[in-house]
């Protein structure tokens, strides 16, 4: 849980700073609102999905599904970044 908490907090900071940098100074308020809505909605929907899986099966299955989903998102993100930089896969 410590690792998940550190990763979650780091991801929050990283995504917000990246949003600010991409949008520029004049759009800080809009970026802040969009980021907060997106992050909170994603957290809520993720918790709802994990709860549904845990209710239908068990907590270990829900955690395993979250781990697989996280790994898939990470792999897709990494592949997209490599593709955007023109690095051969």
What does this protein look like?
The chain is globular. The longest helix has 29 residues, at 28-56. Helices cover 88% and strands 0% of the residues. The chain contains three helices and no strands. It is mainly alpha-helical and 89 residues long.
Helix content: over 70%
Q: Radius of gyration over alpha carbons?
A: 16 Å
**If you average the pLDDT, what whole number results?**
89
Number of beta-strand segments: 0
Characterize the overall form: globular
The biggest sheet, with number of strands, parallel, antiparallel or mixed sense and barrel status, is: none
Low-confidence stretches: none
Number of helices: 3
Taken in chain order, the helices and strands follow as HHH
| N-to-C span | 32 Å
* Class from secondary-structure proportions: mainly alpha
Strand content: under 5%
Please give the structural blueprint.
Layout: H1 2-23, H2 28-56, H3 59-85
How would you briefly describe this protein structure?
With 89 residues, this protein is an all-alpha fold.
Summarize this structure as a short list of keywords or feature phrases.
single chain, about 90 residues, mainly alpha, about 90% helix, globular
